[in-house]
Amino acid sequence: MSAPRTLAAAAAPGGGGRAKLTHPGKAILAGGIAGGIEICITFPTEYVKTQLQLDEKANPPRYRSIGHCVKLTVQDHGVRGLYRGLSSLLYGSIPKSAVRFGVFEVLSNYAKDSSGKLDSKRSLICGLGAGVAEAVAIVCPMETIKVKFIHDQSSLNPKYRGFFHGVREIVREQGLRGTYQGLTATVLKQGSNQAIRFFVMTSFRNWYLGDNTHREMNPFITAAFGAVAGAASVFGNTPLDVIKTRMQGLEAHKYKSTLDCAYQILKNEGPLAFYKGTVPRLGRVCLDVAIVFVIYEEVVKVLNRVWKTA
């Protein structure tokens, strides 16, 4: 069986010869590298987004705006405070991105038609599969730990001294189930995220590449397409992201289920609460998706030169 192609190759029609295939190992390695670099660049916006979503109206809210959240965080903890919880996300971001691209490449290899083309509809299904895989294997436990860390650090008396101490305490107090809170919401969020992103990305690639399978994709073009794909996913599933964050916070015990969480938010805070943190998430996700796709493609090019496969 032939190995999966890169995203650019998978998106391109079969005119001008069969597109070059990529070994799945390269996809996994390139995805991991891209994920690690991306999270180090964009984490502060993720921190602010999570803080705003956890800042429920019933508290009453501590933060008046994005700028106010940043100001208070730096005031209380210094600039390093914007990177609280980075370790938990970094440890998960590398395997998450590796699983995402690895699974997508494998699925897209099966989904391509006889001409070697992966159309937009099939890429949506492949993206959905990649999103569900990363949600179950990596994202849910990673996100649960991240949210608990950020929520704990914003309390008056933080109890977690570091990543491994925090994980140990969570497992000791709640068992392994404590790292899988909000699984349903996470699967829905990641599945829809990747379905939307790969659908939009493939649509743009097919349009840009046309019938020329060997046309080079300029990194700036890839970044622009990636940013649009990221924006589409934000507006498409921010409500799921808000529910997931609440289900994984330290006060998750207040909710009986994912549906109960959604009902409580709607009842107590109104429909606009489902779009809390949209602006910081929009900035982070657009940058995130653009960076990941660009780095992924560039790393694959390097690997193709140094790692010869059939």
UniProtKB/TrEMBL annotation:
Each Solcar repeat, start to end: 22-110, 121-207, 217-302
Molecular function per GO: citrate secondary active transmembrane transporter activity
Sequence intervals crossing the membrane: none
Example GO BP: mitochondrial citrate transmembrane transport
Cellular localization per UniProt: Mitochondrion membrane
Keywords attached to this entry: Membrane, Mitochondrion, Repeat, Transmembrane, Transmembrane helix, Transport
GO CC terms, sorted: mitochondrial membrane
Catalytic activity: cis-aconitate(in) + citrate(out) = cis-aconitate(out) + citrate(in); maleate(in) + citrate(out) = maleate(out) + citrate(in); citrate(out) + (S)-malate(in) = citrate(in) + (S)-malate(out); citrate(out) + succinate(in) = citrate(in) + succinate(out)
Membrane association type: Multi-pass membrane protein
Function: Mitochondrial electroneutral antiporter that exports citrate from the mitochondria into the cytosol in exchange for malate. Also able to mediate the exchange of citrate for isocitrate, phosphoenolpyruvate, cis-aconitate and to a lesser extent trans-aconitate, maleate and succinate. In the cytoplasm, citrate plays important roles in fatty acid and sterol synthesis, regulation of glycolysis, protein acetylation, and other physiopathological processes.
Similarity comment: family membership: Belongs to the mitochondrial carrier (TC 2.A.29) family.
Protein name: Solute carrier family 25, member 1
Protein species of origin: Alligator mississippiensis (American alligator)
Lineage: Eukaryota, Metazoa, Chordata, Craniata, Vertebrata
